[in-house]
Amino acid sequence: MSRPRVVIIGSGFGGLFAARALAHADVDVTLVSKIVSHLFQPLLYQVATGILSTGEVAPATRDVLRRQRNATVLLAEVTGIDLAAHRIHASKLGEDLSLDYDYLIVAAGAGQSYFGNDHFATFAPGMKSIDDALELRARIFGSLEMAELTDDPEQRRRLMTFVVVGAGPTGAEMAGQVAELTGHTLRDDYRRIDTTSARVLLFDGVDAVLGSFGPKLAASARAQLERNGVDVRLGAMVTDLDADGLQVRYSDGRAERIEAACKVWAAGVQASPLGAMLAEQSGAELDRAGRVKVRPDLTLPGHPEVFVVGDMIALDNLPGVAPVAIQGGRYAARRIVDTIGGTPPGADFRYHDKGSMAVTSRFGAIAKIGAIELTGFLAWLSWLFVHLLYIVGFKNRAVTLLHWAITFVGQARTERVTTQQQLVARLAVRQLGDNFSPTISGTMESDDSTGEGTKGR
Ligand SMILES: Cc1cc2nc3c(=O)[nH]c(=O)nc-3n(C[C@H](O)[C@H](O)[C@H](O)COP(=O)(O)OP(=O)(O)OC[C@H]3O[C@@H](n4cnc5c(N)ncnc54)[C@H](O)[C@@H]3O)c2cc1C
What we know:
The chain is an alpha/beta fold. The chain folds into two domains: 180 residues, FAD/NAD(P)-binding domain; 205 residues, FAD/NAD(P)-binding domain, CATH 3.50.50.100. It contains 14 helices and 23 strands. The structure holds flavin-adenine dinucleotide. Flavin-adenine dinucleotide binds next to helix 1, strand 2, strand 4, helix 8 and helix 11.
């Protein structure tokens, strides 16, 4: 008799930890993901700012699971889920596949939300993928290179103005690191520009930086960022954004146009569209961010064989953080093992909050661990410890620690390689048109407004 088939969608925290939790189970696990790696999103901003390389934050999933004989890894994007047939449909670069399952764990995470202004994405990449981080790295260092070349003071000011939209953990950490770069690390690298004169602006419509940490820590985070050179502007809504800059409206009614070449969007999330697909077929509700209202045991209503975990779920106001996904993935795996073994269902999913933290500068951070609130160096040390713990693989931990020593003690950045292709990435894809579908065979299909076609060019 064949073993139960467990299909997992996603190689992020939820998907990977679910797969690993099934290592000793008598099941066949197939992990399908649209990327080849497990991505440690919390450290993406360090890839963008030249601290870490991509390999440290994104180890190959295939490598992580190489010794797990019951697990198979497939690179494909899931395009359809048929709950009635117990089947998923997926494709990658023109290759289609379908997979039948006995149990399904959906851990497809969330993407960036531009709150209905999707055209902003072209000019202000978010921070969700390796592509985003490399493109932002190219934009940050590229802006400074262009500033070094130009003699026009207005152009130079525009090129040396860096804008981050969204003062949550991603935005605050990103703004802090760009300020660190321009204010300290790069100050001897250029001959014609003074990087310490660069402006780093952090915008948010709300009235606190890192407001979810509570008023005391939020105030400390703001002060730390400002000391580090970040111009924090709260009660500020970004109303328009283009290649050259952005338009801001403040809560007191003022409006301002800011010229800035490099913009980063860290303001909102939208759950994977797979959530809507599951909701439509199961009758589950979705919240405003497209998250699925799952049952307390993380299953879909009427489908005890389908689990949804991590950033895709709306349950008890749980935050979209890595530990929720990890614990959810492990819980789903345990439920599946129990069901197969005939063990009566255990308790509902309960999240154990081990705290949260965010870095604001070199040796500066805030941390909330239960009732304990830390700021400054102590908070930074706990951040260091916790993040090292969650990085997958001993080799990655060792190399990351080395890079942190180089960056924080040595005040240098070793991962500053950028390429022309990274710089023009999303603009080039946009120019190819909506119907562009890449293949690896060397041909291109694209939106053909000229009537001549681009195939084989
Ligand atoms: C910049 C940033 C900083 C963050 N900082 C922190 C932090 O400091 N602390 C913290 O706890 N949390 C942080 N988070 C949140 C944390 O990273 C997420 O909560 C966590 O990654 C969620 O895990 P997940 O498995 O649900 O989704 P993800 O980790 O996003 O994984 C989703 C997976 O699904 C795959 N996928 C998506 N759609 C498809 C599809 N159609 N077909 C196949 N595969 C698909 C993706 O490729 C990916 O592998 C941060 C997030 C970001 C973006």
